[in-house]
Amino acid sequence: MSLNKIDIQLNLDAENPKQRLDAYLASQLTDYSRSTLKKFIEAGYVRLNNVEAKSSDKVRGGDLVELSLPPVEVSSSKLVAQDIHLNIVFEDEAILIVNKPAGLVVHPAAGHEDGTLVNALLHHAPEIREVGGEDRPGIIHRLDKGTSGVMVVAKSEPARLVLLEQFKARSVYKEYWALAHGVPS
């Protein structure tokens, strides 16, 4: 596969120890899981020193790694807008902040194809369908089904990229409270 547009370019410092390419990418691109990065490599989206790479390739100081992100596929057949009440804390043209109740699943998954926060968001703000792709449009972070709390949702791709960087840099202040009844086992 030929790379048309290089989305991410990494130049390894001379001090970088020798390591597998997939492990190196996972350490640098924390928005992606190692298995996802392996799939990108296997599909030909990654080049090491201008040559199509393999996951097992070793990278070392001085190497050049280029990644051309595959097109985002939105599985629209699963993503159905549903009129589910949202407790909106704040909204402007870039972001939406909602108070997610306990019991609400954030995004569609096995056993929860609908009735999720994403389904409600698509009804409220249809433009998020194009933000981030897959089954998690606009979603920056998540809370477990049984957890209530405030969630930040991107309404545009530029907002999503800024928010992801803020979460990655840990410049977002988060506070967690727990309420326990009885003595946990």
Characterization of the model:
The protein is of the alpha+beta class. It has helices spanning 21-28, 34-42, 117-124, 157-168, and strands at residues 8-11, 19-20, 46-48, 51-52, 58-59, 64-67, 88-91, 95-100, 149-154. The strands form three sheets. A four-stranded antiparallel β-sheet has the order 1-6-3-4. The chain has a three-stranded antiparallel β-sheet with strand order 7-8-9. The chain has a two-stranded antiparallel ribbon with strand order 2-5. Helix 1 (21-28) packs across helix 2 (34-42). The chain is elongated, with a radius of gyration of 19 Å. The termini are far apart.
Summarize the structure.
The chain is an alpha+beta fold. It has 4 helices and 9 strands.
Q: What would the keywords be for this entry?
A:
185 residues; alpha+beta; 4-stranded antiparallel beta sheet; 4 helices; 9 strands; elongated
How many E-type strands? 9
Main structural class: alpha+beta
For the record, give the distance between the C-alpha atoms at the N and C termini, rounded to a whole number: 53 Å
Strand order of the largest sheet: 1-6-3-4
Helix share of residues?
Answer: 10-25%
* Helix/strand order: EEHHEEEEEEHEH
Q: Mind telling me the C-alpha Rg?
A: 19 Å
Largest sheet: 4 strands, antiparallel
Query: Looking at the structure, what is the overall shape?
Result: elongated
What's the helix count? 4
The low-confidence runs, each spanning 5 or more residues with pLDDT under 50, are: none
- Give the assembly state of these chains: single chain
The average pLDDT score comes to 84
Residues in β-strands, percent:
15-25%
